[in-house]
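L-ascorbate metabolism protein UlaG (Beta-lactamase superfamily) structure dump, as promised
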Amino acid sequence: MTPRYLVLALACLAAFAAPVPAAAQEQRTPVSQCQAIAQNLPRATFASFSGAPTLMPAVSEGEDVKLTFLGHSTFEIDTPAGIVIATDYNGWYRPATTPDVVTMNKAHPTHFTLTPDPGIKHVLHGWSDVPGEKANVNLVVGDAHIRNVTTDIRFSYGLGGSQENGNSIFIFEIAGLCIGHLGHLHYELTDSHYTEIGRLDVVMVPVDGGLTMGADSMSRVIKRLRSSLILPMHRRGPPVEAFLAMFGKDFDVAYAPDDSITVSMRTLPKKPLIYVLKGVR
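C-alpha cells r here:
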C-alpha cells in the first residue's frame, strides 16, 4: 500500500473509531419503559432548564411522584426532580406554582385555554391544528418523559359527527412509573391504542358516565389496562359509585381523606386500587 493510501485508510479508521460527540449522544431517542413495542417510538425533543439538552437521568424505584386533584380533569403531577405538570389545563384550576408543563384537550373549553400563563415553558396540545394530522408529543423535561396517543372525539354541543385524533391520552414516564391521563375519552380503545400505550401503572380516568363514555364502556377500558392505581376524575352528573359498581372483587376501592397521593414503584398497590380523591365524589 502506498503512503498516500495508507494515510487515507488510517484517517477513515480514525473517523469510525472517534467517540460520538456529546451533543449527538444527547439526541438519542429515550427508551420508553411503558410501550409494549419499543420500535414504535418516534424521535423525541429534549428540553433542559440548564441550557444544553440532556438524556433522562437514571431513576430509583424509591423516588416518589405526587399527584394532586385540582378539579374537573386537572391534576398536578410533581416529579422527584421538582418538575410541575398540570393535565387538561384550562387556566381555572392552577397549581400553587406556575407549572413547567401543561397538557390540553379540546373536547370542551373546560379542558384547554388558548391564553395560558406565558410563564409556562411547555404547552402541549392534544390535537393538531393541521387537518388530517395527529398531535405528536414526545418530550423530555427534567426527569419526565411525556408522550401522547391520539383518539377520536365526538363534536361538542350536539353538532353530530366526530373528529379523528381530536383527543390525546398523555403518558408521563417518571421515576420508573408509567402514568396515564385518558383525557376526554369518547370511544373504547382499539388493540392499536393499547399497543401504543403499553403499561400504565397509574391512570386518571373520567367517570362522568356520559359526556365521555358510559360507566360500562369506561370500566372495560380500565379492566383491560389493568393499572395498579386508578384515579377517577371528571365526575359530572351520576355519583362516582355508578362507575365503582362496574368492578368486582378483583379491584379494591378506597376513599382518600385529602386531594393528593404520593406513589412510587415501591409503594404501588399489589392489587388494582380505585382511589377516589377528595373533591371527586
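Residues 3-17 form the longest helix (15 residues).
lmk if u need the other ones
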